[in-house]
Structures are given as C-alpha cells and as structure tokens.
Amino acid sequence: MKAHRARNRNGTPHETKDPSAPGSGHRRYGQLHEVGGAESETDPDYDPEFDAGYTQVHINRCARVVDGFLASLENVPKEKSNAFVLKAVKTVVVRLNKLNDQCDGVLIETGRREQLCALLIAAAQRAGLVSDEYDVTAPWREW
C-alpha cells in the first residue's frame, strides 16, 4: 500500500489531516478534498492543487459496497449460514480491493482499514459466522 502525503504550495510534503478521526464522517472526506486538503481556503494548509487520490464519488461507492454487505447479512439462511456469510465477506473485500485500486491504494489507509475490518468482522460474527480465524477478511484483503 502506498503512503500518501499532500504537498504544500512550496512543494514540501506534509501529513494530511486524518478524516477517519473520531467525530468525522464521510462528508468530512469530501470537504477536505474539495478545499485542497484543508478545513477551508483560509487554512494555512490549503493547497488548491491538493489531490487526495480519491473523490466523493469513491467515498460514496465505498459506502454503497459496505451497505450492500450489511444488507446481505440481514437474511442469512439457516442452512449453510457459515458458507453464506463467508462468501459475503469475500465479495465485499474483493469489491473494496477494486475500489481501493482505482484510487492507487489511498482510499483505505491504516486507520480506516482497522475500522473497516472491525466493522466487517463484527457484522459477520453477528450474522452467525463461526471461524477459528479472527480476521476473516485477511485471505482476500489487499488494503
């Protein structure tokens, strides 16, 4: 996975603000992207040429992929439930891999990866998945 750093107007790299921090939601990702990686155009970190590597469109797609996964777990068949849930996990992870690849690996970075994995794993367990492996996303996950 590539590390992503934005650059100030003078070309020096700086860490971007973490939109996955507590209290920030999907909308915040878009806001940072729209105003050059800063809170507003008056922010000292504002860079009109800032490129987060993804857009609000990618964020919306990610949300739809995850929402689809969660919805698929609402009606897990009693027979072969483990196989059903595991297939749903594989499907969502592969879809997220493709989406993250479209963004050169910067859409799902460390903090978001940890949160996303925790969500997927908890949802799978709640849907009845029984596994000796804690991280059931690992066999397919590329982010």
Rg estimate, integer Å: 17 Å
Name the helicity range: 40-55%
Q: How many discrete domains? A: 2
Q: How much β-strand is present in the residues?
A: under 5%
Task: Report the average pLDDT across residues.
Answer: 80
* Class inferred from helices and paired strands: mainly alpha
Q: Low-confidence segments, ≥5 residues, pLDDT <50?
A: 1-35
The end-to-end span amounts to 7 Å
Number of helices: 4
H and E string:
EEHHHH
How many E-type strands? 2
Shape field:
elongated
Biased composition (Acidic residues): 40-50
Region (Disordered): 1-50
Question: What's the short version?
Answer:
With 143 residues, the protein is mainly alpha-helical. It folds into 2 domains: 52 residues, no CATH class; 70 residues, no CATH class.
Give an account of the 3D structure:
Residues 40-50 have a biased composition (Acidic residues). 45% of the residues lie in helices and 3% in strands. It is mostly helical. The protein has two domains: 1-52, no CATH class; 57-126, no CATH class. The chain has a two-stranded antiparallel sheet. Strand 1 (6-7) and strand 2 (13-14) form a beta hairpin. Helix 1 runs antiparallel to helix 2 (56-72) and helix 2 (56-72) runs antiparallel to helix 3 (81-102). The chain starts with 5 loop residues before the first strand and ends in a 17-residue tail after the last helix. Residues 1-35 have low confidence and may be disordered.
Key phrases:
single chain; 143 residues; mainly alpha; 2 domains; two-stranded antiparallel ribbon; 4 helices; disordered N terminus
